[in-house]
Amino acid sequence: MNTKQIKNLPGARKIAMPEFVPPQLATLVDKPPVGEQWLHELKFDGYRLLCHLQRGQVRFWTRNQNDWTAKFPGLGKAIKALPVKSAIFDGEVVALDASGRASFQKLQQSINKNAGAGLILHLFDLIYIEGFSLVRTPLLERKRVLAELIQPLNERGVLRYSDHIEGHGAQFFKEACKLGIEGIVSKLADSMYESTRSRNWLKIKCIKRQEFVIAGYTLSEKGIPFSSLILGFYDKGKLVYAGRAGTGYTNAMRVELRKKLDRMVVNKRPFAELPKDPGLRRAVWTEPKLVGEIAFTEWTDEGVIRHPSFQGLREDKKPHEVVREKPS
User: Fold this and answer.
1) Is it the case that residue 104 has pLDDT exceeding 90?
2) Which of 155, 230, 233, 273 is deepest in the core (most CB within 10 A)?
3) 236 is a domain residue
């Protein structure tokens, strides 16, 4: 696409490339919206990345503006090869397991041990290109330009275009859940790109899963580094107990987590109120600095999660941002 075509896109504005554009966030709801005005995409199980390309240089930002460029040299090389001089892409980096499904644990292992080898970057939005901001350009137009850039690439390459369907959200959601996908994201086709959480983007999850603050661990009598991680979330600035996660770890993960947590041990519990859980008699409290991704089956009436399973640390999330997710 040439500069004249970009200039003629509805809402396109010529501006200098911004240092950082905060990402648009989706609102959690319990079912897909109805109507042909909605685009439905798969929800990826990975890390959200904003990718900046300018004058042959690539930078990867997390949603909280942490510079993660050094973690993804392979993805950076692929972005540089695109037929464009300047652009800002929005996407999600994932790692696939043996069955071809996105695995958050494998993603962490690839980043920490293999310099990001074997990762895939799903690109679902384009918010700046060749000197023009597209934040006021309707989503469907932004995706059309993005598709022109990405779809000619090898479909098995590291860069993938995140396609969508128009309408039929309930059926799309049903099929995504059958395949074991985390969920879907539904977006208004004519919506602008807003650097906030709004109802123009909705997320619907097949399984219950969210981030929790790690507030300590319980000691084990079986000779392993810890029995479970103690979890919480913030409500009106106070840390609230949410339960304990005792599964989902490899032995190596337990060792590494124990090392990290032992550097944060404190004498006083970080929760506003003492949790009514007899399993906390062997608790070791820590500063609430780490965030973990947890899958679970449901919330109890007491506000504790059932059958929690640890998925990995979330280095891209700040503890005070972690709240209990409720469909609105």
Assistant:
1) no
2) 230
3) yes
Instruction: Identify the domain containing residue 41 by its residue range.
Output: 3-205
Query: Which one-letter amino acid corresponds to residue 312?
Result: G
- Here the contacts of 246-253 (C-beta below 8 Å, separation 24 or greater) are 246/308, 247/308, 247/309, 247/310, 248/295, 248/308, 248/309, 248/310, 248/311, 249/310, 251/224, 253/310
Q: Beta strands 305-306 and 238-245: pairing type?
A: unpaired
Q: Is 43 a catalytic residue?
A: yes
Q: Is the pLDDT of residue 224 over 80?
A: yes
What length does the chain have? 328
Please write the tens of the pLDDT for every residue from 50-60. 999 999 999 99
Model confidence over 120-132: pLDDT tens digits? 999 999 999 999 9
The pLDDT value given to residue 68 = 95
**327 in a domain, yes or no?**
no
Same domain, 101 and 138: yes
Residues 21 and 170 both lie in one domain = yes
Are 157 and 252 found together in one domain?
no
Q: What is the pLDDT of residue 116?
A: 60
Instruction: Measure the CA–CA gap between 128 and 134, rounded to whole angstroms.
Output: 5
Task: Judge if 104 and 227 occupy the same domain.
Answer: no
Q: Residue 115: pLDDT band by 50, 70, 90 thresholds? A: low
Q: Could you tell me if 234 and 185 lie in one domain?
A: no
Q: How many domains does the chain have?
A: 2
| pLDDT tier, 185 (very low <50, low <70, confident <90, very high otherwise) | very high
Q: Is residue 43 part of a domain?
A: yes
Catalytic residue, chosen from 4, 14, 31, 43, is 43
